[in-house]
Write a structure and sequence with these properties.
10 strands; eight-stranded mixed beta sheet; alpha/beta; 216 residues; binds NADP nicotinamide-adenine-dinucleotide phosphate; 21% strand; Rossmann fold; two-stranded antiparallel ribbon
Amino acid sequence: MKIGIVGGTGDIGEGMTLRLSPKHDVIVGSREEAKAIATCDTCREALHERDQECSLIGGSNQRAVDEADIVILAIPFKHVIPILKALTGFEGKIVVSPVNPIERTTHFSYAPPPEGSAAMMIKGLLPPDATVCAAFNNIAAEKWRALDEELDYSVAVCCDDDSAKHTVMEIVNSVSRLRAYDAGPLRAASVVESVTPLLLNIARFNRLKDVGIRFV
Ligand SMILES: NC(=O)c1ccc[n+]([C@@H]2O[C@H](COP(=O)([O-])OP(=O)(O)OC[C@H]3O[C@@H](n4cnc5c(N)ncnc54)[C@H](OP(=O)(O)O)[C@@H]3O)[C@@H](O)[C@H]2O)c1
């Protein structure tokens, strides 16, 4: 399974690269190819130190789209529209959104676009035959990066296409102790995205770090 990560140099992108590249072929995308290659070098070194083989290459965001079957949009909400407008070739691809539209004042709050969620907005920006799934919205980047710890969390997956949802759930279940749960159609993604500001507020006001969720 070839997975392209647009914005793969960022906090969550690097963490996902570390966890996914031992199991799948990962293409790390960036606006700057050199930055993507540097992220790959860092990840490869960290994995080799732990005797883990990996498959990863760095390139442009466009290459991450072109060469992948599944594209993860690891980019801040405020940059989604310009980044997607600059990219082509999403036809027939599965596009995974971990994107959370969040505002910060004295606390964190959910600030969705008029479409209802980041995932629904992204669906509207892509060709009709691209399949958008919301997933990985509620896991902190630091946890992805902490390679010596298990990722023992639940991952809610929303998608309108059963086959694409199944594929994304298999990817989730291939990572550490992550467990995928079917969270309904894409229009339910607002529920999943809005959990993240709750987790951030719980962390902030209770002096906790990297709070996550596990369904039992
Ligand atoms: N961080 C978390 O703990 C976490 C947890 C769950 C979900 N998420 C979601 O995951 C997404 C990524 O979060 P993140 O914290 O990883 O983001 P980030 O580190 O701030 O940024 C990710 C990447 O976006 C690209 N980028 C930054 N500014 C840009 C601009 N002006 N124009 C175009 N591209 C730009 C950069 O890649 P290049 O410079 O290489 O192009 C950057 O490495 C967000 O939507 C967030 O809601 C994050």
